[in-house]
Amino acid sequence: MSCHQWTVESFGVQWSCRRSEEFSVASNTPRPTKAERREAARVKAQALREEQERRERRAKITRRVLIGAGAVVAVGGATGLVVASQMKKSDLPTGTIAEGKANTPGVPEIVLSDGAWTYGKDSGLLGGQGVAIGSVTEGAAVLDVFFDYSCPHCAEFDSLHTDEISKLLDNGEATLVLHPCKILGQDWTDLAMNAMGLVIDKDPDNALAFHNAVFEEYLSIAQKQDPSRLTVETLVAVGEKAGVSGEVTTQFKDTITSRAYDAWTKLGTETFQNLGFKGTPTILVRGEQIDLTQVGAADSLTKLINK
């Protein structure tokens, strides 16, 4: 018997085979056991549940932004619910990416002089088609994202726009500039920044995936109000899930305990404060600050960049 067609269904794989007149030799491929089929179905179901949860979170974020359009919140403290205040255009950066690296002890090697790091098309990677850390896409719009890892709104923004930003980078439509800072005074920011610094230095190819995964985890923690998960062990698990090398995640504890990248946190925070921003996330497209009510849909950044 030779299988000529198969389709993926919701909780497993279903296939149909047509009998062959020439069939004479039994297949050497062992049939999966009942336990193996059950485990495969469980793994598939778990993946589908996680994907559905991500969709539901994004839908909730979109509804929350639309319902709260025009509102400005400045709470801070333990909740970390801060929305960027509006500023005059004359106070804003021009969208020009900082020149030169920080070259400072305690700051990742690839990080720029203002504490930011970039993603764009690397002309030498995959014939200019690959997106790489530390690269800039010439002629593309600059998308600046100022964030605090302890800011739930930053986590919401990241969850809503991760896929969209990935497409913008892949299509060469934008250069992403990530600006970390610590404005909410939360210990989680220190943990995340030190872990991220190590990943950028030791496993840079997985840094963006780790960045997104940290926010995904924090959003879950905030929604479930479970601060017990704000630990080094959680970051290790997040790193492993994001594909960070085990050789790197095993160094998280020592790196965080020694506060190896605190200088980076300080540099990014000083940049944020010197620019006069008041809350996170602060989003700029081509140097112009974007009202957060304009980015409440999963395709809103694309529309802003291409308008």
UniProtKB/TrEMBL annotation:
Keywords: Membrane, Transmembrane, Transmembrane helix. Pfam families: Thioredoxin_4. Residues 139-293 form the Thioredoxin-like fold domain. The chain crosses the membrane at residues 65-84. InterPro entries: Thioredoxin-like_fold, Thioredoxin-like_sf. Coiled coil: none annotated. This is Thioredoxin. It comes from Actinomyces massiliensis F0489. The lineage of its organism: Bacteria, Bacillati, Actinomycetota, Actinomycetes, Actinomycetales.
